[in-house]
Amino acid sequence: MSDSDSPSVHKDFVRQIIDGDNDSGKWGGVVHTRFPPEPNGYLHIGHAKAICLNFGIAEEYGGKCNLRFDDTNPEKEEVEYVESIKADIRWLGFDWEDRLFFASDYFEQLYQWAEQLITDGNAYVCSLPLEEIRSGRGTPSEPGTDSPYRSRSVEENLDLFRRMRAGEFDEGDHVLRAKIDMGHQVMLLRDPIMYRIRKVEHHRTGDQWCIYPTYDFTHGQSDSIEGITHSICTLEFENRRPLYDWYCDTLGIHHPQQIEFNRLNLTYTMMSKRRLLLLVNEGHVDGWDDPRMPTLSGLRRRGYTPASIRSLCTKVGVTKHNAMADLVLLENEIRDELNKSADRRMAVLNPIKVTITNYPEGQTEELDAVNNPEDESAGSRKVTFGRELYIERDDFMENPPRKFFRLGIGREVRLRWAYFITCTDVVKDDDGNITEILCTYDPETKGGDAPDGRKVKATMHWVSVDTAVDATVHLYDPLFTKEDVDDVEDESLDWKSNLNPDSRKTVTGKLEQALAGSESGYRCQFERLGYFIVEQSSQPDALVFNRIVTLKDAWAKANKKK
Ligand code: ATP
Ligand code: MG
């Protein structure tokens, strides 16, 4: 018995509908879903929710899930996007097997169905300008007005439609409309457009077509052709369902059940492909896969794992209400995963030199450092200790306030895996800036414990000057400074003013020698600083690290206080 059969597991409303259908035998026990991206951009983490839902349900119910590109809009679609979408779905861990489809493969069938609707008196060629078609639809409280072309004969409609296909007319001369009801309560059913003349090439059909079907005249029929049972989509399609149903019923074809669920929205994040494209084109980010982007390719480069993204999608669940999920939920997924699996390493990102004045010059020693306290099997490594070290500048204060427990003159702290050190003095340049910190160490405290049982209030990370490896380290923070920047409907919204100017800071870090030559994709924790990944383009002799996430949710808290 799989989880989905177990009555003890709480099920979301989509799975409850499927259970109900399986009980009533509505689809004969078949569960067939699809994920239908439009190839006009890269997939983002919102899409991941739809992917996990559609492919996940197919897996749970022993069904199938198709990948279908909804490529009815010839202009904005590109092969680059098709390939990236396929790679991203595979990376997430799902497989459409041999069921890769394109709505454009159905153009001929859709055309035949359009002729069928014309022949049955259910569609007509309308020659009003688009503006008049729009104004003629009325308002929610007032009915629309019939187009003067509504009463064209079947013969005339067929003739005009065939000549539209043959390219005899210019764009905007005619459209094909469904003949439903200009007074219908649902505005969308007031004779919606089925076909437009577009004299543009399509990325798959080339110049074969100069008329293109609308989304509404394509989507349900594509589902129907593929034998989809549950056509799962986001809430904004709820108002289109009556039209989806009308086309399937009027054509008398297999009629899948459309089910709508809530989109994933994340704080400090933008999910609209249109706006993400602007970020790319206007150079606010380096590309679709910039590690700050909410795209799957960006998150991958940032260091997120497929498991962390799938887990988020499961946890936010599906409902009928749009809401905002906290970005921290996603960050906590990767924190939890990497806490268990990632090596701990020491790296100093804002270095200041420490000289241990009572440590013999020229001497070094190798100390044992545990790789992962959460995983004994990860073992340990050696770190080199010597007279000259780097520590974080922030870990020292000349005149520390009461609550500052780290290093200050006369204070003793522990260096991780090494010794207790006590600060005796500082060296300053002519401008009074501290350039070096002078300390003594207690040889009795090797390994980090004092035999007399005395305690220190801080344990600090460090790297020895002699063995330090330089690396470029990108410190990423959210792209936006405002929690809610995703109101795509609001055209007047000055959303770019909320871009975070400090979303990327780049520093040169001093890393412990175990990190020399790290391979791209390697993830580890820099102790006390966060989780990091070696950038995909990184070379062994010129290391580049990306910060995946800090250890705690410090950014959002600090940002909220501002
Ligand atoms: P966007 O609004 O970001 O441009 P879209 O809806 O136009 O995205 P599609 O390529 O049409 O993008 O989306 C493919 C599928 O992914 C659709 O079924 C859509 O409902 C779903 N989807 C898109 N965005 C989200 C989201 N934020 N959360 C959940 N599902 C989403
Ligand atoms: Mg869409």
Description:
The protein has a 7-stranded mixed β-sheet with strand order 12-25-26-27-23-24-13, covered by helices on one side. A 7-stranded mixed β-sheet has the order 21-18-19-20-14-17-22, with no helix packed on it. A 4-stranded antiparallel β-sheet has the order 4-5-6-7. The chain has about 550 residues and is α/β, with parallel strands linked by helices. Helix 2 (about 45-60) crosses helix 11 and helix 7 (about 215-225) packs across helix 8 (about 240-250). The longest helix is centred in the first third of the chain and has 16 residues, at about 45-60. The protein folds into 3 domains: about 5-260, HUPs (Rossmann fold), CATH 3.40.50.620; about 265-340 and about 475-560, Glutamyl-tRNA Synthetase, domain 2 (Orthogonal Bundle), CATH 1.10.1160; about 345-460, Ribosomal Protein L25, Chain P. The chain is built from 13 helices and 27 strands. The protein has helices spanning about 15-25, 45-60, 80-90, 105-120, 130-135, 155-165, 215-225, 240-250, 275-280, 295-300, 305-315, 325-340, 555-560, and strands at about 30-35, 65-70, 100, 125, 175-180, 195, 210-215, 230-235, 255-260, 265, 325, 345, 345-350, 350-355, 365-370, 380-385, 390, 410-415, 420-430, 435-440, 460, 465, 470-475, 505-510, 525, 530-535, 545-550. Helix 3 links the parallel strand 2 and strand 3. The radius of gyration is 31 Å and the shape is elongated. Bound molecules: adenosine-5'-triphosphate (ATP) and magnesium ion. Adenosine-5'-triphosphate (ATP) binds near residues 234, 264 and 273.
